[in-house]
Amino acid sequence: MSAHCNLYKDMRRAWCRGINFANMTEDIRRIFLSVTSLPESYSILSLFCLIATFALVVSFKLYRALATPLRGAQGPWFARFSRLWLLREVYHGTFMRTNVKLHEKYGPIVRIAPNEYSIDDPAAVQIIYGSKGRFTKSTWYDASGFPGKPNGFNDHNIERHAAGRRKVSSAYSMTNLVQLEPFINDCTSILRARLDEFASTAALVDIPRWTQCYAFDVIGEMTLGERFGFLDAGKDIQGIIQTLDSTLFYASRVGIYSFLHPILFWLNMMLNMEGMGFLINFIQDIVTTRMGKPPPDGKDENAPADFITKFQRIREENPEKIDKEDIMASAVANISAGSDTTSISLTSVIFHLCKFPEALARLRNELEGAIRRGEIADSITFKQAQKLPYLQAVIKEGLRIHPATGLILGRVVPKGGATIAGCLFPEGTTVGINAWVAGRNKDVYGDDVEAFRPERWLEDAEVVKRREAYFMTFGSGPRTCLGKNISLLEMSKVIPVLVLEYDFEPEHPDRPCETENVWFVKQKHFRCRVRRRSVKS
Ligand code: HEM
């Protein structure tokens, strides 16, 4: 026993001093001596077990790599045998760029792990994500929630997910959006006041941070009728942002080895208890108080109505349809799925308009023309914004060139297998499309995929239709983003204000966008000086 302890201590010490090469030989010698100090038969048996296990694992991996009908598929060499290649890429936060390069090198099918393939083929969208395919979400999603307790985002069960989604989907429909506009107007006024302060001092503004504060407050007010107060504080409140960040970091990495999730989840929870606890309590208190009262009457269809009100109305019509737990789950989903994603997309538009001044000039021209004709006023409505084709093209292009999610949307091939990109994938294989890869497919989008060119959404109708069909930023099919319209609403309303009223001057105009991929691809170190401009009318 004590020999084991010593051995462990020696190994730990050796590991800690790993970078001290002078000590390494000595460490190895001491560890060897510790091993050899075990009873001889015991150490021979241990050694044999170790070698046998190693040989078994290697043979299994070799067999699996060679026996698969997909052995002809290409990709990084190591990914054929181990998920460690994928883990390393995801860990470094650069997966989406590597993923694009690999498709440029190997074509429409790229192996990214022993049983997992990234696909780049417009025809695959319907096969993988269409409702007829019955492809279920991959195990990567398991790490995005409580172990063994599926949620609306990670549920593998197609029927249960569809039933859950049906309960709440009417609240997210396009016709219901008008009731959310006043909440956006509120937050935009505060954002405007903050930007005016920055403009008066010529301070450098951390754009991703402020779009995040804005998006958090908007989704808070839309969902709960109350802002978190990020725009007032200008910084994280009670560690909420930090908590969501580390949850994403955790889920994107642990999802690769999702069998570890039931163990690691609790550790992660303990480390992030404060922010998560605050967020859940904040939401729970509001939901409980609100559910104790009847919802405001819904006679005026255009009156402001946050999500809790919308859910209460669904419950009034049919109490069986939705309960408090469903409402809590939807509120948490709104806030965790709808804040960073919208902030990333807003930042993408601002960043690219700074980089591509001709697009900015054309957008301003369209907006100023609309003001002159009296078609839009101070708080532009969603309806008015939808009639501005260049604005809509700018938003779409911002979402194409920098999709908020940067990993493949993995799905498991169902019984009977499936032919994708001309290749037969056996049942149980994980396949998926990464929105970054789809948005950079040159056959669909043209050779200038790295350019921010909103005009590509205003070209020949047939060409645009193909682009729309391979636009994967919000996913596709029955698991497509539930909050897509909310983000489009938010962006359509705030971008005109930012573009018309402010000039953004990047601190480093020539630098490319720095990012970190934690499933959400967050921009980093993008600071601008903001100046007030007078709107031409
Ligand atoms: C620009 C902003 C957004 C982007 C780019 C985005 C992206 C996505 C993507 C790619 C998916 C599909 C994931 C998959 O197939 O694995 C998804 C799902 C989802 N999104 Fe969004 N999202 C955005 C905003 C929002 C907002 C504002 C909300 C809520 C208010 C939201 C709620 C959800 C939910 C609940 C799902 C799961 C849907 C399901 O599985 O049925 N998202 N989103």
TrEMBL record:
Cofactors required: heme
Binding site for heme: 481
GO-annotated molecular function: heme binding; iron ion binding; monooxygenase activity; oxidoreductase activity, acting on paired donors, with incorporation or reduction of molecular oxygen
InterPro entries (UniProt xref): Cyt_P450, Cyt_P450_CS, Cyt_P450_E_grp-I, Cyt_P450_sf, Cytochrome_P450_monoxygenase
Keywords in alphabetical order: Heme, Iron, Membrane, Metal-binding, Monooxygenase, Oxidoreductase, Transmembrane, Transmembrane helix
Xref: CDD domains: CYP57A1-like (cd11060)
Membrane-crossing residue ranges in chain numbering: 42-63
Family affiliation: Belongs to the cytochrome P450 family.
Protein name per Swiss-Prot or TrEMBL: Cytochrome P450 family protein
Protein source organism: Melanomma pulvis-pyrius CBS 109.77
